[in-house]
């Protein structure tokens, strides 16, 4: 419709029919095309990674506003690497960048994307269960620590009612967060507390993407593990609570 003067050749028509057939089966367009735009950058995505969402750009924006310097920034559950790569590309100050994921296949995609965007020498990817690599390895001693977490946060109820292009094609491990959707955040908080008690770090900022209905439950959880910590929430463009942050 946008280019009526164009005529497809036989090979292009066959490709179009194949792609259309896949989309009619609810396969996400990002999987069919093999890439997705996020924060002005193009990222390779596969069925082993979560497809980047526009609302997650708010998470990136909030950290860029901090203008961190000489900090260690860790993207927990990095997936395609879209968050940590976007941060590395847009923050001018010198920082240490890490991406952690439990999926080896997801890490391969993330590493490909760092090479694609020319930051493969600036970001270290580690296979591990949330912050466990930092707990187990004393060489990761940290002073200023920024944790970025877009962990699986869909409750069982919301996940089970998700659209077919989400539930049937994107990895469940990147979406489902248990009964109330906060299982992984609870685990993350326990690990942060362990690091703090072991004196591996002196200052921690944690930024998280959440589901809007989790606001009150998350507040109680943060106060349980980090009494007196400063907790803040931001709404996305749809005016729904989307980003939570606290410092200890």
Characterization of the model:
This protein has helices at residues 10-24, 29-33, 57-66, 82-90, 104-116, 132-136, 156-160, 164-167, 183-197, 215-225; strands spanning 35-38, 41-44, 72-76, 96-101, 123-127, 144-149, 203-209, 230-235, 241-247. The chain has 248 residues and is an alpha/beta fold. It has one domain (47-247): Rossmann fold (3-Layer(aba) Sandwich), CATH 3.40.50.150. The termini are far apart.
Low-confidence regions:
none
Q: How much helicity do the residues have?
A: 25-40%
CATH fold-level assignment: Rossmann fold
Total count of helical runs of at least 4 residues: 10
Distance between the termini: 54 Å
Integer count of domains: 1
- Main beta-sheet strand count, sense and barrel state: 7 strands, mixed
Overall geometric form: globular
SSE run:
HHEEHEHEHEHEHHHEHEE
What is the CATH level 1 assignment?
Answer: Alpha Beta
For the record, what is the CATH homologous superfamily label? Vaccinia Virus protein VP39
CATH architecture designation: 3-Layer(aba) Sandwich
Strand content: 15-25%
Short description:
It is built from ten helices and nine strands.
């Amino acid at each position: 419709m946008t280019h009526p003067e164009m005529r497809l050749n036989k090979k292009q028509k066959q490709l179009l029919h194949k792609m259309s057939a896949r989309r009619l089966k609810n396969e996400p367009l990002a999987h069919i095309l093999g890439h997705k735009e996020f924060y002005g950058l193009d990222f390779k995505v596969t069925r082993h990674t979560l497809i980047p969402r526009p609302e997650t750009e708010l998470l990136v924006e909030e950290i860029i506003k901090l203008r961190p310097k000489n900090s260690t920034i860790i993207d927990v559950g990095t997936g395609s690497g879209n968050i940590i790569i976007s941060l590395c590309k847009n923050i001018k100050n010198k920082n240490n960048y890490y991406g952690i994921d439990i999926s080896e296949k997801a890490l391969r995609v993330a590493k490909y994307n760092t090479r694609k965007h020319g930051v493969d020498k600036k970001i270290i990817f580690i296979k591990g269960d949330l912050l466990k690599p930092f707990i187990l390895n004393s060489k990761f001693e940290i002073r200023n620590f920024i944790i970025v977490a877009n962990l699986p946060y869909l409750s069982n109820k919301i996940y089970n009612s998700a659209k077919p292009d989400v539930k049937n094609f994107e990895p469940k491990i990147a979406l489902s967060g248990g009964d109330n959707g906060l299982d992984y955040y609870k685990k993350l908080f326990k690990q942060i507390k362990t690091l703090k008690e072991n004196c591996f770090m002196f200052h921690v900022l944690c930024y998280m993407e959440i589901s809007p209905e989790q606001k009150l439950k998350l507040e109680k959880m943060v106060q349980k593990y980090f009494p007196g910590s400063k907790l803040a929430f931001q709404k996305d463009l749809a005016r729904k609570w989307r980003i939570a942050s606290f410092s200890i």
